[in-house]
Specification:
Elements (H helix, E strand, L loop, with lengths): L1 H8 L6 H10 L5 E5 L3 E6 L2 E6 L8 E6 H19 L4
Helix pairs in contact: 2-3
């Protein structure tokens, strides 16, 4: 999760990632996938798999998070960015 925020999202809002999470949670789509600078998110309704593509020793580092929880994290991240930079970011 750390790599997703620091490498792929950085200091901007979660944008398309949150949009894709919402698309799956609203059942508009059953599955979405997005790859950023260093992470791939495989979004399913219940769980999302986050894969860090550049793990040490050739192993793919991955974690699972409840999709609803990931949405909450993205929303908190967006709030923090708005407080720091204002609405334009």
């Amino acid at each position: 999760m750390f790599h997703l925020v620091l490498s792929d999202i950085q200091e901007v809002k979660s944008g398309i990632r949150l949009d894709l999470v919402n698309k799956v949670l609203s059942k508009e789509s059953s599955y979405e996938e997005i790859t950023g600078n260093s992470c791939t998110m495989e979004i399913n309704y219940d769980m999302t798999k986050i894969i860090f593509e550049f793990a040490m020793e050739g192993a793919r580092d991955q974690c699972f998070i409840e999709t609803e929880e990931l949405k909450k994290i993205f929303m908190l991240w967006d709030e923090a960015i708005e407080k720091k930079y204002g609405e334009s970011n």
